[in-house]
Amino acid sequence: MVDRGNVMFMGTVESTGETSTLRIFTEFCPALLGIERYSHLIVLYWFHLRDNPEHRKTLQVTPPRHEGAPLTGVFACRSPSRPNPIGVTVVKLERIDGCKLMVSGLDALEGSPIVDLKPYNPDSDSVPEAEVPGYMRHL
Amino acid sequence: MVDRGNVMFMGTVESTGETSTLRIFTEFCPALLGIERYSHLIVLYWFHLRDNPEHRKTLQVTPPRHEGAPLTGVFACRSPSRPNPIGVTVVKLERIDGCKLMVSGLDALEGSPIVDLKPYNPDSDSVPEAEVPGYMRHL
Which of chain A's residues have a Cβ under 8 Å away from the Cβ of B74? Predict the structure, then answer.
């Protein structure tokens, strides 16, 4: 049975800040056609600094920055240490300039490879009433 | 520059329907610890039937099932044909039985490899007011 796959990097998080810049490599730029019709995007990016055997064998962590959080499986938290070092963040698309997207709300480090972009559709992606444990509420 | 990465498959979409079953491989089962504290999850899965050169070189499609949709970049739609065959779906966690999760709302084919699970946090993941083009509204 096939038990793994490969991903190609589509671009790079060129800069981060209140507004972050995603640079899409020229060869993948045609995949942006029409993206300006959406206000928000889902960004899949590579936790490149955690792409090593130690971090990829991490299955449980105690989430930092959440007082009272217990030992937690990495499928039950957003730890960048996990078997597949892929992060998912919802961002607001602020502006497009050729193959560059300016976005706000990105939770990624500068230099992170971009794995995929998807348009955000509230019909399927927004669940305002979703429940989380109490220690996630006092960020 | 590193321009690609590899993903390991964490489990399989064992059955689909109103409720779908995700089976996590035994070795990755510890990563589920505490997942029952969340009502909803983000599932990353592999579009295994599209993992071939033809589908992975697809950069633009005309989305089917959306009357009036124009030619669109794959970063601006949820096409399973895309350079990295990764799907993202928000599901409701209905029940857990050992290493199996019963979920509703999964938009994946039976047999799809599971790439990652993440807990859904409405603070960062829910954007009810996100804008989409008109042709996405009449599903």
Answer: 31
